[in-house]
Amino acid sequence: MSSVHYFQRYSQLENFVTNNTLLLLSRLYNEPPFKFKMLLNEIAYD
Length: 46
Hints:
By secondary structure, the chain is an all-alpha fold. Helix content is 65%, strand content 0%. The chain has helices spanning 13-29, 33-45. The longest helix has 17 residues, at 13-29.
């Protein structure tokens, strides 16, 4: 997977949303990984 960019290079909405989502997940993963895992479990099982 290519790296996530902080500055948008896309004009189509779906690419813009995908990039922002991956950027958010990347930042959350850089926090303690167990918190990231807890977040994903909350999203998946709610």
